[in-house]
Design brief:
Layout lengths: L1 E4 L5 E5 L2 E5 L19 E3 L5 H4 L9 E4 L1 H10 L5 E3 L5 E4 L2 E7 L19 E6 L13 E4 L8 H10 L3 E5 L8 H11 L3 E5 L11 H11 L4 E2 L6 E4 L3
Parallel strand pairs: 3-4, 4-5, 5-6, 10-11, 11-12, 12-13
Antiparallel strand pairs: 1-2, 1-14, 2-3, 7-8, 8-9, 9-10
Helix pairs in contact: 3-4, 4-5
Length: 239
């Protein structure tokens, strides 16, 4: 599994021969790529805010996956033709990948209409090369994209012990999501090997020094490695 960060919450994930793009938003200071510059078989949307769906229309040949309300909105407004509506707790098989939706604690107004509640509960995605079961599988490679969220005990009680992510991308920008302190607690609860900070430095309210996140993770006593990626930088998750 290869994971590439394109700034903000935009991640490109390759599982064997399947390419997935999460929350396409390339108008951010961490990437020089134009929308549509990466390959995507599937585009995964955590929720309907502008900074997560803005460039979904740049991938007309991809299948768009997310909550039914969000993918329906994109079909109506972005010319998306192929969609898969899934919901919280569900696992969908997307080519060589298995993607499980889990709740994220956030709002979900569509586009910039933050007062709207029409998008349903926001989601995070657990992306794996094997289908999750109650039997622990040390051979699987699993990436958790937490979406826009605050700290929630499901990370400790469900996602960490049962979905077993190896790598987690967590928002650290504060103001709209967790800041470095709560994100560090999330990483400790998830017990992942590697943590990737995201959703920071895009707009003035979320300008954060990611080294603060690293210090907070250390303060929890966690052995998790914090990787502060440069824009368009990749890491590989080995089995």
């Amino acid at each position: 599994m290869e994971i590439t960060w394109h700034g903000h919450s935009t991640f490109h994930v390759t599982v064997d021969n399947t390419a997935l793009l999460v929350d396409p938003f390339f108008d951010n200071p961490k990437t020089d790529l134009e929308p549509g510059a990466v390959d995507a078989d599937y585009v995964l949307l955590t929720h309907g805010h502008m900074d997560h769906i803005a460039d979904v229309g740049a991938f007309p040949d991809a299948t768009v996956v997310g909550l039914p309300e969000v993918v329906g909105y994109c079909a109506d407004n972005y010319g998306v033709s192929e969609t898969i509506g899934a919901n919280l707790g569900g696992t969908v098989e997307l080519g060589d990948a298995f993607v499980t939706l889990h709740r994220a604690d956030h709002t979900n107004g569509m586009e910039t209409t933050y007062e709207s509640t029409g998008g349903g509960m926001p989601a995070g995605f657990v992306i794996s090369d094997t289908k999750p079961t109650q039997v622990s599988d040390a051979e699987s490679s699993t990436f958790y994209h937490a979406g826009d969220t605050g700290l929630m005990t499901e990370m400790r009680e469900v996602i960490g012990p049962y979905l077993e992510p190896d790598v987690a991308a967590v928002p650290i920008g504060d103001h709209f999501t967790m800041g470095p302190m709560q994100a560090a607690i999330a990483v400790d609860w998830l017990d992942v090997d590697v943590a990737l900070p995201m959703h920071y430095d895009t707009f003035p309210p979320i300008e954060v020094d990611p080294e603060e996140f690293r210090r907070e993770v250390t303060a929890t006593g966690s052995s998790t490695e914090v990787r502060i990626l440069a824009g368009d930088e990749s890491i590989t998750v080995a089995e």
